[in-house]
Design a protein that fits this description.
By secondary structure, the chain is α/β, with parallel strands linked by helices. The chain has two domains: 183 residues, Alpha-Beta Complex (Quinone Oxidoreductase, Chain A, domain 1), CATH 3.90.180; 140 residues, Rossmann fold (3-Layer(aba) Sandwich). 30% of the residues lie in helices and 22% in strands. The protein is globular and about 60 Å long.
Length: 335
């Protein structure tokens, strides 16, 4: 198989060949048809220290076809089209093939192209877990409540807006900083769009609506922590996916009996939790919602096939912090 890997954090990925892995246990061997890039790729690359003799394969967002299965596989068969984000502790999808545990893989939506499908798994898992596992939103109970999603135009925000509306039945207030990203958020179903470069408290209160019962932070937790703590409704919940560099005083949430929780979509596969298979089920649900037209793919553009130049180009775009939706690459040239 062919793959692209990094030997250090300041060089371009190198193309190399290695023996194609064998599927054992509950693993699936998947021939990759398209991948998407995510900020986690650039963060893990930045944390590569020194010079490695074994190139590190990044990438955790892909779709493809199963070409072999382990002897304990129960959920799939050879030939199945699948999509998945994978396990950050294992080699990624900047490659022609990848081994993935079946419990974190879903059946691909039938109505989407490979590029549209590759855009969905990592962000869908992140948004779904944040909304329904961490914030514990239940559409039949919480319908009509307010959620503030900080950073609505990126990959996670683009699907979180939709899930909050379709499954959570919430009133969605989100943020964007440019005309095109504001329009994108409204297109996906946001009821109101604020500017996260301006005072969020002043803007939110100007809407004349109740304070948010839920806040999902997808953009700079440090910058927005004080505003989130001030805005969150009594007994509300805040969830963030963005790590902090500063110390924050959680006592400011005490009088409101409000909570703060993290979401990291790799937790289940990293720690082999007993509910790992939850990601299989939620991806299948997302695929059905996409096929039914209740959700829309957050795919925005294809950079080209998986190659060193295109990976570098994709990472540069991600690092600008201005990407709308998801960037996708097609299969590596495996000839």
């Amino acid at each position: 198989m062919k793959a692209l890997g990094f030997n250090s954090n300041d060089t371009a990925p190198i193309l190399f060949e290695q023996e194609t892995p064998v599927a054992t246990g509950r693993n699936l061997l998947i021939k990759i048809e398209a991948i998407a890039v995510n900020p986690v790729d650039t963060k893990i690359k930045a944390n590569i220290t020194g010079i490695s003799s074994s190139p590190k394969i990044l990438g955790w967002d892909a779709t493809g076809t199963i070409v072999s299965v382990g002897n304990d596989v129960e959920l799939f068969k050879c030939g199945d089209k699948v999509f998945y984000a994978g396990d950050v502790t294992r080699p990624g999808c900047y490659a022609s093939h990848q081994l993935v545990d079946e419990r974190i893989v879903g059946h691909a939506p039938a109505s989407l192209t490979a590029e549209q499908t590759a855009a969905m798994p990592l962000t869908s898992i992140t948004a779904w877990e944040a909304l329904f596992s961490r914030l514990k939103i239940a559409g039949d109970i919480d319908a009509g409540k307010n959620i503030l999603i900080i950073g609505g135009a990126g990959g996670v925000g683009s699907i979180a807006i939709q899930l909050a509306k379709v499954i959570g039945k919430l009133n969605v207030i989100t943020t964007a900083s440019r005309t095109e990203s504001e329009q994108w958020c409204h297109k996906l179903g946001a009821d109101n769009v604020l500017n996260h470069h301006s005072d969020l408290v002043v803007q939110y209160r100007a809407l004349g609506i109740d304070d948010p019962d839920y806040i999902l932070c997808l953009n700079n937790t440090d910058r927005h922590f004080k505003a989130m703590a001030e805005l969150i409704a009594p007994q509300g919940m805040i969830c963030s996916i963005v790590g902090t560099q500063e110390k924050h005083d959680l006592d400011c949430l005490k009088s409101k009996s409000a909570g703060f929780v993290w979401e990291f979509m790799f937790t289940r596969p990293m720690f082999k939790t007993s509910d790992m298979i939850t990601q299989h089920h939620l991806l299948n649900k997302v695929a059905q919602l996409l096929d039914d037209g209740q959700l829309t793919s957050t795919y925005t553009s294809t950079i080209g096939p998986i190659s060193s130049d295109n990976i570098v180009k994709a990472h540069k775009q991600l690092l600008t912090g201005s990407t709308i939706g998801k960037l996708v690459l097609t299969a590596i040239n495996d000839e």
